[in-house]
Known about the structure:
Layout: H1 2-67, H2 72-86, H3 93-98, E1 101-105, E2 110-120, H4 130-134, E3 138-148, E4 153-161, H5 168-185, E5 197-204, E6 208-209, H6 214-217, E7 229-230, E8 277-280, H7 283-291, H8 301-312, E9 334-342, E10 348-364, E11 367-384, H9 392-406, E12 410-416, H10 423-431, E13 437-440, H11 443-463
Parallel strand pairs: 4-5, 4-9, 9-12, 12-13
Antiparallel strand pairs: 1-2, 2-3, 5-8, 6-7, 10-11
Helix pairs in contact: 1-2, 5-7, 5-11, 8-9, 9-10
Amino acid sequence: MSVLLRLLDRFRSQRQGAVLPVFALMVIFMVVIFGAAVDVTRTVNAREKLSYALDAGALAVASELSTSVLTDAQILQVLTDSFRGNLDGASFMEKAIDNLDFTIDSDNGIVTVTSSATLNNYFIDIGGYMQKSLGPETFSFGAKSQVTYSRFNVELALVVDVTGSMSSSDMRTLRAASTSAVNILLPEDTPEKDAKVRISLVPYSQGVNLGDYASKVKGGDFYSVSGNCVTERQDYKNYEVMLTDATYDYYLDANPPPIQTFFGGGSSNCSSTSKMVPLTRDRDTLLPAIAALTDKGGTAGQTGIAWGWYSLSPNFANVWPEASIPAAYSDSETLKFAILMTDGDNNRYYRYVETEEKCGWSYSRGSWRWRCQDVEVNDWKEQSESENYDNTSSTRSRALCEGMKDAGIEVFGVYFGTSNSSAGAKNMQSCASEGNYYQASSSDELVQAFANIARKIQAIYLSK
């Protein structure tokens, strides 16, 4: 009996010995399966991270190309910087950067970026043996991203109210708001020669200070004129030019053209430091001009709107320097915008007076008599008027805005004030293209409005 029990014990021990090798193989097999799953999961996650970095890099390049011209080396640098920011800490980052490649389809405005990398397999490669038998030492993965960018150039007229109602604190706000718009559309690190956005600055009060450009448009090539404060013009004989962007020297029926065909003055109440700047991509020109804005005078909003339009009009190409000549309206690769801002209601307009009646007491033949007579004036005269929506200056303002929009210029209107039903607010609402009216009731809201408009302009030309 004892012998039999010993034999059974021996048989049992032999059965256990046979199972252990099988069990060991099963354990190894399960480790390989689960380990492979871990490796595949790591690779999938790495590919997703690479794909995200590619999307971010392609968007960064598209944003840069939408505002400036980049060389291949600059594009690669933008991509590399983006990758380092989005793949920081990833073991495959350097390999992904080495394998970066891109193409630029300038005809269709498309950026295509690709990259690939590898990950070591931690679990399949057990002691260097399993990799040789069951699979590769690494997993390779790659991704591709394609983003559109704007092929368009942008011209923007920034027309701002610098009248006496803009107190010193309001002027600080206006300067900050205008600077923010420039910083968004002309980023600091964009070389001037590569920028695709040009901006004009048009400060207005009772007229626009045209600086060195004033004499020409006031007829200074033919007549003795003075002052840099330019107001508006009138229709002469059969020419209807007042509310259009017809060239300043349109009149060819006489040489010299009559003084009445040119732009007028009639005011010295333009701010001496708030000068118009024609289209430029030079931040070093725009920002100091914005910093110099100061308030003075009443409100002739139609003059600011008119010169904002003229700064974008190809009909005024012979007024501005070569670098500031606006693109043709037919140029399919240029988008034109205007931002109009006011804090008040129009209350001034101008007309050319040839003669006017003057009356007064005069002593003649032993008695005083009240006498009136026509005297020659031949000059532009300022006309003050009550502030309302239907007055002459407001009516002209809205007509000029319609002309701008008909010419293909997208207009943004900003009212800086608390009354959305005031004449100034309603003028801006009427002037603005659909969906482009903003009311700013506080300093913070004015800065935000300008920034939002700049970003909206970006979105428009990026989406096109």
